[in-house]
Amino acid sequence: MKMKYFLGSLLSFIISISAFAQNNPGVDYLSLGEMKLAKEYFTKNMGQAPAESHYYLGEIAYKEGNIAEAKSQYEQGLAKDPESALCAIGLAKLQLKSSPKEAEDQFKNIQKQKDNKKNVTVILAIAQAYLDNGMKEKALEKLQDARKADKKSPLVYIFEGDMLAKENKPGDAAMQYDQAINFDASCALAYMKGARVYEYINRNTAAEMLKKALEIRPDYRVAYKELAELYRRDGFYPQAIEPYKEYFKGSDYTVEDLTRYASVLYFTGQYDEAKKYISEGLEKEPNNFVLNRLSMYNNNDMKDYQAGLAAGDKFFSIQKPTVDAAANDSTNRYLVQDYLAYGKVLSETGNKTKAIDQYKKAVEIDSSKANLYKEIASICANEGMYADAADFYKRYITVSGEKAEASDYFQMGRYFYIAGDGVKKDTANVTVDEAWQNALKMYKEADAAFAVVGERIPDSYMGPFWRARANASMDPETTAGLARPYYEQTVKVILDKNDGENKKELIEAYSYLSYYFYLQFDKHKKADDKLKVKEYAEKILELDPENGNGKMLFEFASAK
């Protein structure tokens, strides 16, 4: 239709629609950005107010970038009611840039009509048309017109609050929403809008505002969603559960809603419930990146590793996002935790080599994060992969530098020590001698780590005691006595404390020393060595009279 057709048609009586806009859930949904709910509402209620419904469906299309659909909706509204001010405003909005004078003349003619001079909804629709076209000053002029028309209308203050919120001025926006409530304490939308900006000022106030909106409109299920989201965003997952339950009593939730609710259930350890909503979401969007990630995590924590592996395979096959450690958006890129979780299910299903590859990829995301090496080392150790655990812990200590503590060196030493015992027995793909050489390297790394522990905590037996064990492993026949000085140091440190503790460690040290001197006597037949056998055997029996080795060594040394 031509523009002048509308100019002529609007010279007649135009119906008032302020009440429609102010008390309409669909308008509120649109204002809150709930496009799906708004679209469903206006489509369903088309018969009751066809022109207004077409206008708002046009606004939804406009916001979604579908200008052709918006134009069609405005035109359909005018076909239903040629005198619809809102639909005429919608069409004029589309011409503001191409035919600004005609469009502005249209706005003036609409606003000057008798029933529209004081119609806040109509005036604000014009203001919105200007705002949608980037004409802020014109929009502010119309906002002032709306205020003059009815300074007590909450819609005026909500509109200004929205403008300020978009300009990242939450404090100023909050003042406007408070004004809206001041003039109309029953305006649920004002409480909803206020809650959104108060979240950045005072979370408790935001929550109370949402609860107030529900008092006014118990059927306002979107407020349950907002309340749940408020808690979720701030990490208060247990508090988010109940409002989510209320919201999900309806059937108009989105896949994004399913994803968020499932994540809250997951983070509160409700894995079975989480799985139900994850599955529902994946039925609707099988390739949803976040849901497949969540499925992998959830199955992992449920110890359903086969299902977790299938979810991980699917997740990593969906897309190959660019890894950007600086980005905050985790919905389209791989995270460190993704590789850790995938590595876990691979390891648990017997794919340990592939698991290590995933852990290495996790490190590639940000190799400067020392704690990541430590975390991966712990994961590897829990899965019995001690050589890899030791390697990652060594890298952790390297990155940490002077911040690495004695306890870190001790943990690394333990991993190397246990790894040495493991590789020594692993002769599946190497010779016995090669396996021993591999083990020897591990024991030497362990010894070096325990040496640092001894240097940093000289009054603790842990350093020399574990050095003794590592050296004993490097000298399995005890022929060189590599562990002797460290077991002797262990005894000295423990006895100097004189606290009666570490009986077990003393018995181990005395047993080694007694046996060492037994071998020395057997080889050199020196009486002093036999006396040492007896001395240490007596010490063993003092601590444990029934100790079998102690008895045998004592009997040997006591024999004439």
Would you mind describing this structure in some detail?
Helix content is 74%, strand content 0%. By secondary structure, the protein is mainly α. The protein is elongated and about 130 Å long.
Summarize the helices and strands and which ones pair or pack.
Elements: H1 3-9, H2 18-22, H3 25-31, H4 35-44, H5 50-63, H6 67-80, H7 85-94, H8 100-112, H9 120-132, H10 136-149, H11 154-166, H12 170-183, H13 188-198, H14 203-216, H15 221-233, H16 237-247, H17 255-267, H18 271-284, H19 289-301, H20 305-318, H21 336-348, H22 352-365, H23 370-382, H24 386-400, H25 406-425, H26 432-456, H27 462-474, H28 484-497, H29 503-524, H30 527-543, H31 548-558
What's the short story on this structure?
By secondary structure, the protein is mostly helical.
Q: In the CATH hierarchy, what is the superfamily of the domain at 1-151?
A: Tetratricopeptide repeat domain
Q: What is the straight-line distance between the termini?
A: 125 Å
CATH architecture of the domain at 1-151: Alpha Horseshoe
Instruction: Give the averaged pLDDT, no decimals.
Output: 91
Question: Roughly how much helix do the residues carry, as a percent range?
Answer: over 70%
Number of strands: 0
CATH C-level class of the domain at 1-151 is Mainly Alpha
Which structural class matches the secondary elements? mainly alpha
* Rg over C-alpha atoms, rounded to the nearest angstrom: 38 Å
Identify the notable features of this structure and list them briefly.
560 residues, mainly alpha, Serine Threonine Protein Phosphatase 5, Tetratricopeptide repeat, disordered N terminus
